[in-house]
Amino acid sequence: MTRPAARTRRQTLGEMLGLMGLLMGGALLAGQGGQTLAARPSSAGSAPYPPRGQRGDSNHAAARNDSISALDRNLITAASGGDLELVNRLIAAGASPQAVDERGRSALLAAVYNRHGDVARSLVLAGADVNRKDTESNSPFLLAASTGQADVVRLAMAHGADLASTDRYDGTALIAASQHGNTEVVKLLLKGGIAVDHVNQLGWTALLEAVILGDGSAPYEEIVQLLLDAGADANLADREGVTPTRHARERGYKTMVKMLMRARGH
To answer: 222 and 176, same structural domain?
Structure first.
């Protein structure tokens, strides 16, 4: 009788961890569903990732990947659950930080969705792509900016974050951060040299979003001033010809009106 071939370490680990993934993975991965960068008036379609061997452009969303291994799937599950020890063990065992699930979500994006900054750091240091987008055009960098995870934004910027990348509304990280009142993130992005007057699909700049979608509170006032100090055009109107000053006046944001009037020289 011939002796069966020796099993590789990766095969053995993959089968052992595969069972773990079946037991705990479903609920954790399901918890990621339905989350998007920001609530907006409208939605735009997003292009899928190219096939697995042709993903050089991180500005495309990821395609369905039915061939993901048990080891890689468990990495995404562990990252989603914030299990740093298991994440590190899986990476050491050969799991790929670049692997994505059926929704195009990598382990890094799963960690950012669930605000596990320590796990995100470990994955970035292991080579995870901070610009890779899922099927909703969310990348770890864009999502971190939108949700105010300043440490992750700082980490992403130190590891190749594309400041020109945009979400499904053609909005930059600065627009998303300004909309949500994420002052520290706005400071980081402006210091990094991000375009301050980029116009998204709605016809709004970061300045317009801070006025229109903010609540006029102190964080939004600070963001307006930061944008103006960085050279934002206070006269750049929306598609209906309404300026930031007029939007602020209509909403009763007196401090913002004064800031904008000073910037306009009136």
So the answer is: yes
The pair of three-digit structure tokens given for residue 158, joined into one six-digit string: 């130190």
pLDDT of amino acid 18: 52
The helix/strand/coil state of 69 is: coil
Whether 137 is covered by a domain: the verdict is yes
Contacts of 175 (CB under 8 A, 6+ apart): 198, 200, 204, 205, 206, 209
Segment 92-141, tens digit of pLDDT: 999 999 999 999 999 999 999 999 999 999 999 999 999 999 999 999 99
Which letter, b or e, does each residue of 9-46 get, where b requires 16 or more Cβ atoms within 10 Å of its Cβ? eeeebbeebbeebeebbeebbeebeeebbbebeeeeeb
Do 162 and 173 touch, CB atoms closer than 8 A? Answer: no
pTM of the predicted protein model: 0.77
User: Residue 125 belongs to what domain range?
Assistant: 11-25+61-162
- CATH label of the domain that carries residue 130: 1.25.40.20
Give how many domains the chain has, as a whole number: 2
